[in-house]
Dihydrolipoyl dehydrogenase
Amino acid sequence: MPATADAPDTYDLVILGGGSGGYACALRAAQLGLSVALVERDKLGGTCLHRGCIPTKALLHAAEVADETRHAASIGVNAVLEGIDLDKVLSYQQGVVGRLHKGLQGLVASAAITYVEGGGRLVDAQTVAVGDRILTGRHLVLATGSQPRSLPGLEISGRIVTSDQALGLTELPERVVVLGGGVIGVEFASVFASFGAQVTVVEALDRLVPAEEPSISAQLTRAFRKRKITVRTGARFSGATQGEDGVSVTLEDGTTIEADLLLVAVGRGPVSEGLGYEQAGIVVDRGFVPTDERLRTNVENVYAVGDLVPGLQLAHRGFAHGIFVAEQIAGLSPTPVDDTLIPKVTYCDPEIASVGLTEERARAAYGDEVQTYDYNLGGNGKSQILGTQGFVRLVRRTDGPVVGIHMIGARVGEQIGEAQLIVSWEAHPEDVASLIHAHPTQNEALGEAHLALAGKPLHAHA
Ligand code: NAI
């Protein structure tokens, strides 16, 4: 019999939200012998598994296969791209999501976790109500995540969609306007272009992916233009109207762009409204829940993790937060999660991967004592084989460690692991230069960049 208000269930932790942050916290807490209730109103796995990372990367993989097929004949493999069968693409995507979902459900079921389906709401700082069921926690973990946001006055409906709806389109649009040239914007622009649509990206700031190094933004813009994607930066959106046949998007400079679909990708906002956080005394700032570096909210024994906490909105940050909080509650004194050491990968074509400081941030921290080095993928054998262009950019403290690594080119996301070790372990270029990188891999480009910064370039043009 589930407990009711008269006879509450009591746990070491009650976790609200079963996405990356929440379920990671639950699994780690259970491993550590803590009693856990995990409350989820939708599907276990949250945004990442059902509406984010996994389904979008499946689409991006299908997009890559389409492009490879389109270009196959140029390397002597005669093939013709006959078209995109969106139903099949979606069933492939759902197959991937479904298998991972099943696996995750199995993991949670086999751990000593009480999984509670339903919308939870804080009654006070120790108590969560899920319908009639009352769960009491010695600790509460808020892990309710984020959702796409729109602009004031821009209603999401019909041909005006966010990434949530874009993942389930039943028809491929011929002309798409993507509003926002951040991570979601450039990934979807890439997919739609690969699937044959005419794409225009509208970005208010002066460059695409504004959180990355400016030279990465410039390279991406060049690559997109080569792919016939129209890039409009410094362009402010003014309004959109939709009818039976399309949507008209107007910019502040008076330009109107006609399209079949407007994808709004202007950021994601927190999910915290109506969940009783403020009534329980928890400080909420524009919907986000601020914490200290140990992820404690202002209320004792209440923690927040993942996208709900201001900072990078990434699934792997959520996992790290969740694990951290479980260990913290178990008394293990874990090391806090440092956003600057979190690797970032954007899976458009070409891919972008980065970790650590940009040159600008390094200069803000270390003044003139900063050196950079760009290694062009033109000198890398595997990059030539793949036919990709791009570079690896290192940022180091003069005579000191590498503090930032930034990469663009096909498949560079796969290189982020080594880049992360270099930056997190504060390696000097000389340390990396002494490691042998396998040939021919794009990984060598990382090695070559460090060789060059260590003063002994091999395949590097001055
Ligand atoms: P974002 O913050 O990365 O980009 C939003 C972009 O929209 C910004 O460049 C902003 O300048 C622009 N913008 C805002 N208002 C605008 C306007 N009125 N007109 C034109 N442009 C406007 O947010 P995004 O792309 O929606 O992604 C949300 C979060 O999800 C990000 O934190 C991102 O890191 C995360 N994410 C990560 C992925 C990955 O790791 N591969 C994939 C997808 C999302």
User: Anything to note?
Assistant: Residues 151, 179-185, 187, 202-205, 210, 236-237, 265-268, 313-314, 344-347 surround NAI (CB under 6 Å). The mean pLDDT is 96. The first helix runs from residue 20 to 31.
